[in-house]
Amino acid sequence: MARFRYRAYQADGRVVSDFVVAGSEADAVRDLMTLGLTPFEVTEAGSASAGKSVSGGGKQPPRVLAGFCRNLASMLEGGLPLDEALKLLADDPEDKRVARLASNLRASVLSGRSLAEAMSELRAPPADYVIGLIRAGEEGGSTVPVLHRLANSIDNELRLAEAVRGALIYPVILLLTALVSIGIILLVVAPALEPVLESAGSNTPAAAAWLMGASHGLRDSWPVLTIGPLAIWLLAMSWSRTPAGRRSLSALVLQLPAVGPLVRDMESARCLSSLSALLENGVSLVPAMEIAGQGARNPLVRRSIDRITGEVRVGVRLSDAMMEDGFLPMAAAQLAAVGERSGDMATQLAQAATILETRSSRRIATLTTLAGPVMTLALGVLIGGIVLTLLSAIMSVNDLAL
To answer: Are 321 and 312 in contact (CB under 8 A)?
Structure first.
């Protein structure tokens, strides 16, 4: 028995592609026709895997994928065939990464594969939900809207990620500045004042004595204090790449007071947007949920989507399954209920994704506004307290001399 990849017409004229196991190519064609399909391309899966080894490139950054989808959608919208549009993108000298991606995809498309199949055969393919959306668009005859929607979705994710990075820049600079200032005080200023404080003998203030002890400890154990955090960070990074580490880290992040709701909203918005696009292009609910769940980066969000999918598969309504699970935001379940009543689930889920994205943007703006002043105040109090301790110690020594 061999495994064959096929593309075939359904009774309604739509194109489907999948795999079938049969003894020969003729048996595969006969089995497909028995299922009511009209195959027009049947190839052994081994030949497809061979194409996979030559379709190359490392993992494409989201910005490259967004630019590729937007440019390709514009060319297809202008009436160009897929292979010609990919050729124009491959010949673009200004963006070499998009050109390399288009060139790899064009080689597979010219061999008879669809765009979704060509993407899935890359050495480092995009996320499953991206391939699922493109496959749904090709089968539903709406490739251009799907590509535009993918580009906009990736751009939204990039904007949120850039907002988070921008929110962290100022606090990180403040923290590094504070650490350098404290290091200078403990390693330079405190040792220079140590002879003056020692002259006070037992009358040295307790805070000054503690500060000198901290200075001695830092000078004596700086190798451990330098290598130790680095070793802990490397161990933590290795542990976070394991399945148990990812689950534990995801659970910790979701439990943080301000960050947890933000991450849950962002992940939920991504899944709901993908699910809406798949439903809009004719994919049934359960397969669409399976594809959308694979796009969640957080394992706990993916597990929640899987639980909801299992409930829907046995006949539970989507809104009831969401409310019973309780992990996704309530807005998603409420708008899913509206979609079930109106018969327009795709639009309502897209609205839910928009609401969650807007709420995430507001939370990021709030965190950005508060993070700087709070850290400035905290670090100012810390450094000011150290400086006041040194000054009070010097003043006490001068009082004793009088």
So the answer is: yes
